[in-house]
C-alpha cells in the first residue's frame, strides 16, 4: 500500500487524484504545518513539505510531478499519461515540467512573498511581480490549448489535473474564466470527473 503525506489545499491534491484515478490502494496521512505526524515524515521530507509518498516497497519520494509520473507508469491501464513513444508523450513531459518548474514556484512567491525577499518591505513587490509572471505563464498555456482538447492531446492526463490545481490557486477568483477560456474549459470538464469532485470537498479549490 502507498502512504501519502498530504494536507488540504496543498500540492497533495494532484497526487491524491492520481492515486484515486489509478485505483491504487493508499493511506492518507494529514500533515499539520510545522508538526511532523511521525518520525518517518521528518526523514522523508526534511523541509517539512507535502506531498511526500512512501511506496509499497518502502522507498520514499517527494516532488508531486515525479509522484504523478511514477503512478502513471505503474498503473498504465488508468491512462494518466501517454506512454513512451505515443502521440502526446512529448507534450505531456513538456507541460508537466513547465507547470512544476515555472508555474508552481510563481504561485509560491504569491502566497509566501516574504520568503523571497531579504528586504522587510520587499514582499509587496515580490507578490506583484509574481502575479504578473503567473498571468504570463497561464497565457502561454492558454495559447497551447487553442485547437486541442487537453494539454497532451486527445485524452485527459494527470497534467490537466495539475493545471486545474494551479489555475484555482490564482489569487484572483474567476481569473481563468475571464482571461483564459481554454483553461476554463479544461477546468470545467475536470470538475465533473467524480474523483476530482470528491477531492474538492476536502481541498476546496473552487
Describe this structure in words.
The chain is α+β, with helices and mostly antiparallel strands and 206 residues long. It contains 9 helices and 4 strands. It has helices at residues 12-22, 39-44, 64-74, 89-111, 123-144, 158-169, 175-179, 181-191, 194-203; strands spanning 2-6, 26-30, 52-54, 60-62. The protein has a 4-stranded mixed β-sheet, with helices on one face. A hairpin with a 5-residue loop joins strand 3 (52-54) and strand 4. The longest helix is centred in the middle third of the chain and has 23 residues, at 89-111. It is globular, with a radius of gyration of 17 Å. The two termini are 30 Å apart.
N/C terminus separation: 30 Å
Q: What's the total number of strands?
A: 4
> Would you identify the regions where 5 or more consecutive residues have pLDDT less than 50?
none
**Helical content class:** 40-55%
Encode the helix/strand succession as letters. EHEHEEHHHHHHH
* Spatial strand order of the main sheet: 2-1-3-4
> Kindly state the mean pLDDT as a whole number?
96
State Rg.
Answer: 17 Å
Key terms:
4-stranded mixed sheet; 9 helices; alpha+beta; 206 residues; single chain
SSE layout:
Elements: E1 2-6, H1 12-22, E2 26-30, H2 39-44, E3 52-54, E4 60-62, H3 64-74, H4 89-111, H5 123-144, H6 158-169, H7 175-179, H8 181-191, H9 194-203
Parallel strand pairs: 1-2
Antiparallel strand pairs: 1-3, 3-4
Helix pairs in contact: 1-3, 1-6, 1-9, 4-5, 4-6, 6-8
Amino acid at each position: 500500500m502507498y502512504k501519502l503525506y498530504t494536507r488540504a489545499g496543498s500540492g497533495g491534491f494532484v497526487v491524491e487524484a492520481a492515486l484515486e484515478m489509478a485505483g491504487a490502494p493508499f493511506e492518507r496521512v494529514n500533515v499539520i504545518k510545522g508538526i511532523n505526524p511521525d518520525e518517518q515524515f521528518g526523514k522523508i521530507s526534511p523541509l517539512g513539505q507535502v506531498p511526500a509518498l512512501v511506496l509499497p516497497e518502502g522507498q520514499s519520494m517527494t516532488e508531486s510531478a515525479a509522484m504523478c509520473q511514477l503512478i502513471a507508469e505503474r498503473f498504465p491501464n488508468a491512462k494518466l499519461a501517454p506512454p513512451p513513444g505515443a502521440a502526446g508523450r512529448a507534450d505531456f513531459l513538456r507541460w508537466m515540467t513547465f507547470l512544476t518548474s515555472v508555474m508552481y514556484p510563481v504561485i509560491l512567491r504569491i502566497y509566501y512573498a516574504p520568503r523571497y525577499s531579504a528586504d522587510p518591505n520587499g514582499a509587496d513587490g515580490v507578490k506583484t511581480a509574481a502575479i504578473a509572471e503567473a498571468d504570463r505563464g497561464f497565457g502561454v498555456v492558454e495559447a497551447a490549448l487553442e485547437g486541442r482538447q487537453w494539454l497532451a492531446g486527445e485524452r485527459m492526463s494527470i497534467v490537466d489535473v495539475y493545471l486545474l490545481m494551479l489555475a484555482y490557486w490564482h489569487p484572483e477568483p474567476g481569473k481563468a474564466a475571464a482571461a483564459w477560456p481554454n483553461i476554463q474549459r479544461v477546468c470545467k470538464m475536470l470538475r465533473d470527473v467524480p474523483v476530482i469532485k470528491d477531492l474538492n470537498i476536502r481541498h476546496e479549490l473552487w
